[in-house]
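REVIEWER CHECKLIST
Item 1: Sequence provided? yes
Item 2: Single chain? yes
Item 3: Sequence as submitted:
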Amino acid sequence: MTRRSFLALLAALALARPLRAEGPEWESLSAPEQELLAPLAGSWDELPAERRLRLQRGAAHWQRMGAEERARAMARLGEWRSLAPERRERIRERFRRLRDAAPEERARIRRRYDWFRGLPPERRRALRERWERLTPEERERLRERRQRRLQRRR
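Item 4: Structure as written out by the authors:
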């Protein structure tokens, strides 16, 4: 794995959760962490504290991963990089909305996701194709109808 690929993976991991702590100084990183993060050595002190801490945690996590887990992570990173920038931004926005949602809403979304994943692949494909054929207006009406049903249940 190239350092550049690793840094991209760390950056993706770093977006996962904002932290509120002082970031580590370069000298406080372990030798393996410094080796993984070497491309950032020159600008390390200029990075925000939260980002330095996330990168350090990402490097520590990477070191704990087995070879198979690292290979899966690299494959997922390759898939991420192959997405169009607009698609990546839509995914980031959905992630932000989910992260910022109320716990009850996140639980509801998780239940729906689990339900969908439990469907046979051909049924999932059919639902996905049906959704993609809807116009934005039809999708919005469908969301509103679902929301009304949920509110009536409460």
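Item 5: Key structural point noted by reviewer: The two ends are 51 Å apart (CA to CA).
Item 6: Recommendation: ____
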